[in-house]
Amino acid sequence: MEWLGNHTWRMFAFRANPVQTTNGAAVARVLGIDPGLRNLGWGVIDADCGRLRHVANGTCHSEPGELAPRLLSLYRQLSEVVRRYAPDAAAVEQTFVNKDAVATLKLGQARAIALLVPAEFGLEVGEYAPNKVKKTVVGVGHAQKQQIDHMVRMQLPGVEIASPDAADALAIAICHAHYSLAPRLKEAGGAA
Question: Are 161 and 151 in contact (CB under 8 A)?
Fold first, then answer.
């Protein structure tokens, strides 16, 4: 942890470099986050020059009730995920505005937790529109949840997906590996 002043500490994940080189191959660990107030999905993958490997996935739950304790619960659970799996980067799905303004605001608050936790650990955080994630993983921007789940399973053989939210989070991590990390992984792999 590092002291930033004004009663603020900044925690760092165990890995300091967003692209690791192991045995001549560049590897990056990515945490994908699908924000939600009731169910916040997360998925961790390792990206290795075009190859993806599943590490873990799950769902952070908050019980119905007052908003502040629910957000605190999500914050603590997601912080534990970052501590346990030590990702190099994170990616979060952007929110969309729907007709229910209250639901949109609550989703925005859960999304703030999804952005805050990785930033607190010093991680680069990518943000992707839902259609971009779907197009990257499935090939079409308006894919159904079942199609996303199927394609995540195809790209991460043997994966056991904890929930539909976790499947979405893994898709977000795959999207980030494709758009943000792929060029750096190729560079680092070629330099080794």
Answer: no
Residue 156 is given by DSSP the state: S
C-alpha 104, offset from chain centre: 20
Pick the CATH number of 2-184 from 3.30.420.10, 3.40.630.40, 3.40.50.150, 3.40.50.11810: 3.30.420.10
Which is catalytic among the residues 34, 120, 149, 168?
34
Say how far residue 130 (Cα) sits from the centre of its chain: 13
Tokens of 136: 């990257």
Determine phi and psi for 3, rounding to 5 degrees. -80, 125
Bridge partners of 91, per DSSP, are 32, 126
Identity at 76, one-letter amino acid code: R
* Catalytic hit among 46, 93, 149, 168: 93
15 pLDDT above the threshold of 80: no
Task: Clarify whether 34 is annotated catalytic.
Answer: yes
Q: Give per-residue pLDDT as tens, 108-117.
A: 999 999 999 9
Q: Active site residue: 88, 120, 149, 165, which one?
A: 165
